Amino acid sequence: MRGRTWLGAALVLGAQLRALWLAAAVEVHTAKEVVAVNGTNQRLKCTFSSSSPVSQQLLVSWTFQPEDLSSHEPVFFYMKEPYKPPSGRFKERVTWDGNIERNDVSIIIWNLQPSDNGTFTCQVKNLPDVYGTIGEVRLRVVQKVSFSEIHFLAVAIGSASVLMIIVVTAVIICRQRRRKARDKRMEVADADL
To answer: What SS3 class is residue 109?
Structure first.
C-alpha cells in the first residue's frame, strides 16, 4: 500500500510540474500576414512574453522560407547583441529594430523584392524558458503602381470630369436659349393680339 501512495504522489507531482512547465513557456506574438510594396522597407514585428525575467542569455533567431518551400534560410540572430547575416539574400538588407527591455525582437527588411515572398519565423528562447510558441509572419510583396500608371489614371479621370462639365454647360446653355426664344415668340404673339 505504501508503494502505491508514493507512486500516486509522484504522478500528481509530475502532472503539476508539467502544467507549470507549460505555463512557463515563452509566447511569441507576430502579425500573421504583412503586405508590402516592392522596393520599400518593412518592419516585421515580433514580441514575446515569458514567465521569467529577460535573461542576459536571451536568444532570438529569425529564419525565412520562400514560397517555393525550399529550405529555411537564416535572416537574423540576437544573443546579447544583434548579428546580421554574413551571407545570403538578406545580407546588408536586414536591421535590428527591437527593444529587449520591452520584449520586442522586431527587424526591418530593406528594399523588398518579389523573391522575398514567403514565411518569416521568429523564435525566442529566454533561459530558463526555452520552449514555447514560434511566431510566423507571411510576407507578400506586391508591385507598386508606377508613376506613369498613376499619371494615366489622373489624366483619364480629369478628362472625363472636364468632358462632363462641358456637356452639362452645353445642355444648360441650350435650355436657356430655347427658353429665351420661346419667351420672345410669346411676346410677339401677345403683341399681335
So the answer is: strand
- Amino acid occupying residue 129: D
CA distance 188 to 180: 12
What whole-number distance in Å separates Cα of residue 18 and Cα of residue 49? 19
- pLDDT of amino acid 144: 66
Write the burial class of residue 122 (CB in 10 Å: 0-12 exposed, 13-18 middle, 19+ buried): buried
pLDDT tens-digit readout, 57-97: 899 999 999 988 778 899 999 999 999 888 888 999 999 99
Entry pTM: 0.62
Query: Sheet of 107-109: strands edge to edge?
Result: 42-44, 107-109, 94-96
- 179, 171 in Cβ contact below 8 A? no
Q: Are 57 and 78 in contact (CB under 8 A)?
A: no
Reading the block at residue 66, the C-alpha cell is 520562400
The answer to whether 107 touches 94, Cβ cutoff 8 Å, is yes
- Tell me how far apart the alpha carbons of residues 82 and 170 are, in angstroms, rounded to a whole number: 69
The β-bridge partners of 122 are 62, 135
Instruction: Give the type of residue at 139.
Output: L
Give the E-state strand segments of the chain in sequence order. Answer: 27-30, 33-37, 42-44, 46-49, 59-66, 73-79, 82-83, 94-96, 107-109, 118-125, 135-142
Grid coordinates given for 121:
519565423
Query: Grid cell 527588411 — which residue?
Result: 109
